[in-house]
Write a structure and sequence with these properties.
298 residues; alpha/beta; Rossmann fold; GMP Synthetase, Chain A, domain 3; 2 domains; seven-stranded mixed β-sheet; three-stranded mixed β-sheet; 9 helices; 10 strands; 22% strand
Length: 298
């Protein structure tokens, strides 16, 4: 393959504590909703690659699960998935929340980065939520603890300073080819993205005791003669009481979840969707190797 010396490409791992805005940042950078978002911690469970194609570069962002102390086998998988990316990329984004105090989570991530030679850019997110005078002390705090390749304050949700963040990344990319077509924004199969979109709606719609117990499995996707795509999906929970919460009174909550998910899936596929949702119990699935593999966490 002949590579244009002016064209750059490379991988960027996006890491940070849960709920600092990593997924929102990546969606904003690629200009499309690819990875799911929620105000619930530990929303992202898999490594998901998203593609930003520019005239002079193609940047491949890897969204990782929030780094946290694991409480079950699923948590261990998520932590390993995040840590494994640190030596596989050209650049690392360490995303921090400007509204949160420096704590044990940030300290642990800096300890992980101490053994990494990859350039690390500190991305201070949610600057729209703090007074301007508070930004410099935050940057000084982190910069005193680690020799960052760059520091970029941003607001992912308001798209503030994202152009400068992309320019900062380009400094550390080598000349390379365009790996993926211009219209491709993720390497994930449609089935997995649909699964995640459904799970996002459950996260938004249920109470605190349910979200982390949720898994979604797509049992069937087929195109009917009228060009409507039929999708049958099962939402798994760990307890009978959680099943009742997800279904809701007279099935109303499940209907709302299906309606909201269908809108996003139709935007993704560009087709009319018939979404057939079911809820089943799979006890303690987060601690069972077989269940984790079955849901794609391997």
């Amino acid at each position: 393959m002949v590579v244009n010396a002016e064209h750059k490409s490379g991988f960027v791992s996006v890491i940070g504590r849960p709920n600092v805005g990593k997924s929102t940042l990546i969606n904003s950078l690629v200009g499309q909703k690819v990875v799911i978002m929620s105000d619930k911690p530990q929303t992202t469970r898999n490594k998901i690659m998203c593609v930003l194609t520019l005239d002079d570069a193609q940047i491949l962002f890897i969204d990782t699960p929030g780094i946290h102390k694991p409480k079950h086998k699923l948590g261990e998988y998520m932590l390993k998935a995040a840590e494994n990316t640190l030596r596989e990329v050209e650049v690392i984004f360490f995303v921090v929340d400007a509204t949160e105090e420096f704590g044990g989570g940030e300290k642990y991530i800096l300890e992980l980065l101490a053994s990494v030679k990859t350039p690390v850019i500190l991305v201070v997110n949610k600057i729209d939520k703090i007074e301007k005078t508070k930004l410099l002390p935050i940057i000084e705090k982190y910069s005193a603890l680690y020799n960052f390749a760059g520091v970029v304050p941003i607001s992912a949700i308001e798209h503030t300073n994202l152009d400068n963040l992309v320019l900062e990344v380009k400094k550390y990319l080598e000349p390379g080819p365009q790996y993926y077509p211009e219209d491709m924004v993720t390497d994930q199969p449609e089935r997995l993205v649909i699964t995640e979109l459904i799970r996002e709606k459950v996260l938004h719609s249920t109470r605190d005791e349910v979200p982390h117990s949720i898994a979604v499995d797509i049992e069937e996707i087929l195109t009917r003669p009228n060009d409507t795509v039929y999708v049958r999906a099962v939402i798994y929970v760990e307890r009978e009481s959680q099943k009742g919460i997800v279904i809701g009174a007279k099935g109303q909550l499940l209907k709302d979840i299906g309606r909201l998910a269908r809108i996003d899936i139709e935007n993704l596929l560009g087709s009319k969707i018939f979404l057939d949702l079911w809820v089943k119990v799979k006890k303690d699935w987060r601690n069972k190797e077989g269940s984790l593999r079955g849901f794609g966490y391997d």
